[in-house]
Specification:
By secondary structure, this protein is an all-alpha fold. The chain has 4 helices and no strands. Helix 1 packs antiparallel against helix 4.
Length: about 110
């Protein structure tokens, strides 16, 4: 099920953010994990779509999650040798998350968004 993979991706992103003290996004992503879990457990497709759409909003506009770059200069806890690896992993997870959320919204709504 895609929801379990989406939850896994959000949890992995949350772990990276916590490991490197990127506090700006920790609460929002934790809220998305909680909201999606609740919606999935309730089996409410309308609520699930709403929660997935909230996740999609992370990726829109200036200052969005797409702009996150983990670096010591931004006050994050990261060594110079980790910057490339961590940000590459963050980008890979974010891209997969975006694609899966978009697909899941389409699947649940039956193409009638």
């Amino acid at each position: 099920m895609s929801i379990s993979r989406i939850l896994d991706l959000l949890s992995q992103l949350l772990s990276i953010l916590r490991d490197h003290s990127v506090a700006e996004w920790e609460v929002e992503i934790a809220d998305h994990v909680e909201g999606l879990r609740s919606a999935a457990q309730a089996g409410d497709s309308h609520l699930l779509i709403k929660e997935l759409q909230e996740v999609m909003r992370m990726f829109g506009g200036m200052g969005s999650f797409n702009d996150v770059f983990v670096t010591e200069r931004a006050g994050h806890r990261i060594g110079p040798g980790q910057v490339g690896t961590v940000n590459s992993r963050l980008q890979k997870l974010s891209t997969e998350l975006f694609v899966l959320v978009e697909q899941e919204i389409e699947r649940i709504s039956g193409g009638s968004r």
